[in-house]
Design brief:
alpha+beta; Beta-Lactamase; Helix Hairpins; 5-stranded antiparallel sheet; 12 helices; about 55% helix; elongated
């Protein structure tokens, strides 16, 4: 209102300025003055609108009559032809200002429609870039408020029952109306506060409701916006369902793979135990030394079988959402030597070179899980190293961490695959038909190390690959 009054006053001032110029600064005849007034009215109509232009037209008509039509200095007209001229001027200025104001409104409406289309397009692109870092609906309503520069935006998801808010202003007290809109497919509009609430439909079924404050949108834009929100919510649900299906599939695949692997591993000690006991039963009169050897083999293989069962139990813990660690203080040097000792029969002539410092590298770990992680990395090195090439194990302590490095001298890992090898079930296309494996070992190792707040990385080049496991030192280890 204040702006409109200011414009009206400026319009009158502009008419007075034209009158002064035409009378005193550069005196002109009535025809030239009439054209000057008409031009001024058109400019005001184009810039501000019809009301300001109408005020300028009336004031210009009065000034034209008083200063330029005889008798000058009065509001009377002596020549009847001047009445026609005055009426024609007033009519022309009003019609011209009306047409100019209409054209201006149409141009502004076209600009608004163009802006709305650009914002809808921008918003549709933004929906495709939403990540999985936080709830999809929360990001969806935030991007909506940012794109359309809204004071407040609220989204009610009928299926989850959650309400998500965005924008700099508060938009409280409308929860019931939001639920009502989503339940009964209804709408609410508050012109004074520039608030609108509308249902979000997928087909004919309302799945959510949307509340906006800060701008009045055309119905077509509001409907397009609601459709984009519906598509976004449905896309999020489809992705969530796909993730659940994929997680279930991978979990089932993991179980099947573990069962197959364990079944294969169990056969070796069972075969040895069976052979030893069969030999004892078939020949009970064997010399004591022979019977002792067979019993020793059976005892060792029974221990091996128990270890395999323990490992299977530990691996099953890795498939749970949160790994529960049974931490204890352990010397990483000793732990690595125990793991290396269990591989004595599987080295196939490869030298195992262990290098570590003299002082203990104390870490707070779940001993059985950490031994399993080291086994997986060492087994990977043995699989992919060249025959009779050495396997290097190096332990280095730092003020707060300790590094365990396992190096083999195989073909190396292509750089484009180094980020993939820790993914579950991933196997390089170049070796998966040549070397047996499940694609689980490195994923298991990384999962265990990560659960201990550590990191497992790889550095590889042709002829040498090093896996580095970094773990935090125990407090007492850090003090030594």
């Amino acid at each position: 209102m204040v702006i409109r009054v200011g414009r009206l006053l400026l319009s009158l001032v502009a008419v007075a300025a034209v009158t002064y110029l035409a009378r005193s600064v550069a005196p002109v005849n009535a025809t030239t003055a009439g054209f000057a007034y008409l031009l001024l009215v058109l400019i005001i109509a184009t810039g501000w609108g019809f009301i300001e232009a109408a005020a300028a037209s009336i004031s210009a008509t009065l000034a034209f009559n008083f200063y330029f039509l005889p008798p000058v200095g009065t509001f009377t007209i002596a020549d009847p032809q001047n009445w026609v001229a005055l009426f024609s001027f007033l009519t022309t200025s009003l019609i011209a200002s009306r047409l100019s104001a209409k054209a201006r409104r149409q141009a502004l409406d076209e600009i608004r429609r163009q802006q709305d289309l650009e914002r809808l397009y921008t918003y549709s692109r933004a929906l495709l870039l939403i990540d999985a870092g936080e709830p999809f609906a929360k990001q969806l309503i935030k991007k909506l408020a940012d794109t359309f520069e809204l004071e407040a935006a609220v989204l009610y998801d009928r299926r989850s029952g959650e309400i998500y808010r965005a924008g700099p202003s508060e938009f409280e007290g409308l929860d019931d109306q939001l639920r009502e809109a989503a339940l009964h497919n209804s709408s609410f509009f508050d012109a004074e506060r520039k608030r609108v609430i509308t249902a979000v439909r997928l087909g004919s079924e309302p799945i959510a409701s949307l509340a906006l404050q800060g701008t009045v949108m055309p119905d077509s834009v509001m409907q397009g916006l609601a459709n984009l929100v519906a598509i976004g919510l449905e896309r999020a649900r489809a992705q969530e369902l796909a993730s659940q299906v994929e997680a279930a599939r991978r979990s089932e695949q993991l179980r099947a793979t573990l069962i197959d692997a364990m079944a294969h591993e169990f056969k070796t000690p069972l075969t040895s135990i069976k052979a030893a006991t069969t030999s004892l039963l078939a020949s009970p009169d064997q010399p004591p030394s022979s019977r002792t050897e067979l019993l020793r083999i059976a005892d060792e293989e029974a221990d091996h079988l128990r270890e395999l069962i323990d490992n299977a139990e530990e691996m099953s813990r890795l498939d749970s959402p949160e790994i529960k660690l049974r931490r204890e203080t352990a010397d990483l040097n000793e732990l690595v030597r125990d793991v290396a000792g269990s591989f004595a029969k599987n080295l196939d002539g490869r030298p195992l070179e262990i290098s570590n410092g003299r002082e203990a590298a104390l870490v707070e770990v779940d001993r059985r899980l950490m031994m399993l992680a080291v086994k997986q990395v060492l087994d990977n090195a043995l699989k992919y190293s060249q025959p009779r090439s050495p396997i290097g194990i190096r332990i280095r302590t730092h003020p707060e961490t300790v590094d365990l490095e396992i190096t083999d001298h195989g073909k190396g890992i292509p750089i484009q695959e180094q980020a993939l090898i820790f993914e579950r079930f991933y196997r390089s296309p170049s070796v998966k038909r040549q070397i047996a494996g499940s694609g689980l070992g490195l994923n298991i190792a990384k999962t265990i190390v990560k659960a201990h707040s550590g990191e497992l990385t790889v550095i590889s080049r042709p002829g040498e690959t090093t896996f580095q496991m970094t773990l935090p030192l125990a407090v007492q280890g850090a003090r030594n």
